[in-house]
Specification:
Its cofactor is Mg(2+); thiamine diphosphate. Its EC number is 2.2.1.1. The protein is α/β, with parallel strands linked by helices. The protein is 42% helix and 13% strand. The strands form 6 sheets. It has a 6-stranded parallel beta sheet. α4 (80-90) packs across α5 and α18 (405-419) crosses α23 (550-563). The N and C termini lie far apart (72 Å).
Length: 719
């Protein structure tokens, strides 16, 4: 419990309790809300117990998977008591307002056990009905196979790929502590409306994925004491006993990473030990330490034939076994039959949530009154407002000068950071080559390290691209933040699951990728991206932007911030000339994804290029003019933005009658035929690079003016 005020149940008035310790505050509130009042005409609240709620949760999970003939019942059945305890006593949430900004966050990292979450959402009174549970995993249902953000009320993030949920939760915790440090830094621990907690339920699979090692190290380095992970240590996964795959001491691993670790053994009856879990979770995390609770369980408990079996992990139990489960639970309730008494008991969570919400609102109002200027800044942060004069604040570069797009991006970051306090980010140990450091922004680190503060705006991710991408998603989900992270384009491979989830959720995160082609030179083929642009462009809901010069780079940043959706900004290391194009034309053209940068009265052909190859296209067009060939040149920094334009604009840039088209990009040609058509040609690179100085590598891989001219001659002859 983290709120500094409470409501006295007798009067509904607020009493200030900020002077109490974090633990005292929590216990005071829990005592007030543990037995919420029922309407005067309601039956006695003791007619159903928490045990009855757990029985209902276990059977709903089994019945839903059975009805779907698909799903993962074992974990949901076994952990129903844990989920019930979390949603009834530990997570601060309001089922009537899933978006309440004062809420804690809950992440089911083992997303395959989604029915565990859906049953709690139903039982505690979210907008999830018994019919939604009946429709589990069916077409169009609000209860899909894995939790999806925006699809089901109460789901905080899309989970599925194991380990991603845990790493996303680390980002959520980072975002929440950064918000507190930015807007309420002086409040004692536990006395700020911004003291919110992130709860995670994780499985063996989550902790076996490599991303969890990176995420665990990040959480420990950043001292995220607002993060608690409950690890379901049930000794079972799909192929059988976990001893087949693992022999590590998980507790020792997390302690070494700076976590506080506790272990809870099975209760005497073989069930999970809820009383011990309550004791552990009833106290706050030690200062500066995330917490891992290793919880022993038996998968599918107490279903006699499914208990401790790998089969119960990912397959329906079958009607006969569910009958035995009902016998073990002492009930013959029909499938999906939940009594009114059980619902009255479980939906006491709504009264608890209302009280927590009201208390938080009062605390937040007091905070607003104490510092109106900071309150206004927080309102702008929440609303994601942009300054009206943002464009005027951004840098401009003079035509003819040579500037790398990564340098231009660095200049844009400085201007944006001054204009947008919500902007922060970093790189995977590549701040200098990626140009991502926010000057005078300070390092995001715990104050006790002496190396930064939690209000610092530069995140030092270390060489952890996997967790960096997922944590960026979590930071965005925490609300308000405009977060970016950089690495080399070739290492976007390490980020792909997180990028995909960014796209699935539509999160406003910006991936910065520098060293975008063989032009990076002597680092050789392992560092030279070839296929990456094509594969990233293939991802639905994701925008790839590869600007041609410094002014296009700044315009790309501006457009990305305005779009407020997932994007990758692809940058070069080498200097490229700033094109002589009016700045307003550049900004309008980049925003639309493609525009004419060289035009002629009656073009014989058109070259479409991106990035540093726009300069190559322009020089080739000039050379072609000497032989009487009139060539239009189009810069297309973002195919996604261009293809989203109306047909009239697309046809004005690329006239349908102009079949002689050449695309030029120092990357795989894959995908460009959608733009150039069957009569067009693509000048690209369809083999890996090589170690050589940039000019030699480009020439050796065919990125030459002569090759572009040959392509022009070929397409004009065909058309």
């Amino acid at each position: 419990m983290t709120n500094p005020t409470s409501i006295m149940p007798e009067t509904g008035t607020f009493c200030k309790i900020a002077s109490l310790s974090h633990y005292d505050i929590m216990m005071t509130m829990e005592n007030l809300i543990s037995t919420p009042a029922l309407p005067a005409d309601a039956p006695d609240a003791t007619e159903a117990t928490e045990h009855d709620v757990v029985v209902a949760a276990r059977l709903l999970a089994a019945d839903a998977v059975e009805a779907a003939r698909s799903g993962h019942p074992g974990t949901a059945i076994a952990l129903a008591p844990i989920a019930t305890a979390l949603f009834q006593r530990h997570i601060e949430h309001d089922p009537a307002d899933p978006e309440w900004q004062g809420r804690d966050r809950f992440v089911l990292s083992c997303g395959h056990a989604s029915i565990l979450l859906y049953t709690q959402l139903f039982l505690t009174g979210y907008d999830v009905t018994i019919d939604d549970l009946r429709a589990f995993r069916t077409l169009g249902s609000r209860t899909p196979g894995h939790p999806e953000l925006g699809h089901t009320a109460g789901v905080e993030t899309t989970t599925g790929p194991l380990g991603q949920g845990l790493a996303t939760a680390v980002g959520m915790a980072m975002g929440l502590v950064h918000e507190r440090a930015t807007f309420d830094p002086d409040a004692p621990r536990g006395a700020s409306p911004f003291d919110r907690h992130v709860w995670v339920l994780a499985s063996d699979g989550d902790l076996q994925e490599g991303i969890s090692y990176e995420a665990g190290a990040l959480a420990g380095r950043h001292g995220l004491d607002n993060l608690t992970v409950v690890y379901d240590d049930n000794d079972i996964q799909i192929e059988g006993d976990t001893r087949l795959t693992s022999s590590e001491d998980v507790g020792a691993r997390f302690r070494a990473q700076g976590w506080h670790v506790e272990r809870i053994e099975l209760a005497a009856n073989g069930d999970v030990d809820v009383d011990e879990l309550d004791r552990v979770l009833g106290a706050p995390n030690p200062v500066g330490k995330p917490r891992l609770v290793i919880l022993k369980s038996q998968i599918a408990y107490p279903s006699p034939g499914a208990l401790n079996t790998a089969a119960s992990h990912g397959a329906p139990l079958g009607a006969a076994e569910i009958g035995l489960l009902r016998e073990a639970l002492g009930t013959q309730a029909a499938p999906f039959d939940v009594s009114e008494a059980v619902l009255r008991r479980s939906r006491a969570a709504r009264a608890r949530g209302a009280r927590l919400h009201e208390a938080w609102d009062e605390a937040y109002s007091q905070w607003q009154a104490s510092d109106p200027a900071r309150a206004d800044a927080h309102a702008a942060f929440r609303a994601r407002r942009l300054p009206d004069d943002l464009g005027a604040r951004l840098p401009r570069f003079d035509p003819g000068t040579e500037v790398s797009t990564r340098d231009a991006s660095g200049a844009a970051i400085q201007a944006l950071a001054q204009a947008l306090p919500a902007m922060w980010g970093g790189s995977a140990d590549l701040a200098e080559p990626n140009r991502t450091e926010i000057h005078a922004g300070g390092s995001f680190l715990p104050e006790e390290t002496g190396l930064g503060t939690r209000a610092g705006r530069n995140i030092h991710w270390g060489v952890r691209e996997h967790a960096m991408g997922a944590a960026m998603n979590g930071i965005a989900l925490a609300g308000g933040w405009r977060v970016f992270a950089g690495t080399f384009l070739v290492f976007s491979d390490y980020q792909r699951p997180a990028i995909r989830l960014s796209a699935l959720m539509g999160l406003p995160v910006t991936y910065l990728w520098s060293h975008d082609s063989v032009a990076l030179g002597q680092d050789g083929p392992t560092h030279q991206p070839i296929e990456h642009l094509a594969s990233l462009r293939a991802m639905p809901g994701f925008t790839v932007v590869r600007p041609a010069d410094a002014n296009e780079t700044v315009a790309a940043w501006h457009a990305i911030v305005e779009a407020d959706s997932p994007a990758g900004l692809v940058l070069g290391r080498q200097g490229v000339p700033v094109l002589d194009i009016p700045i307003d034309d550049v900004r309008a053209g980049v925003r639309r994804g493609g525009y004419v940068v060289r035009d002629v009265a009656a073009p014989d052909a058109v070259i479409i290029a991106t990035g540093s190859e726009v300069g190559l296209a322009l020089s080739a067009a000039e050379a072609a003019a000497a032989s009487g060939l009139q060539v239009r040149v189009v810069s297309m920094p973002s195919r996604e933005w261009f293809l989203a334009q109306d047909a009239a604009y697309r046809d004005a840039v690329l006239p349908p009658s102009l079949h002689a088209r050449v695309a030029v990009e120092a990357a795989s040609p894959f995908g460009w035929h959608e733009i150039v058509g069957s009569s067009g040609a693509v000048v690209g690179i369809d083999e890996f690079g090589l170690s050589a100085p940039a000019a030699d590598a480009l020439r050796e891989r065919g990125m030459t003016q002569e090759r572009v001219l040959d392509a022009l001659r070929s397409v004009t002859a065909r058309s």
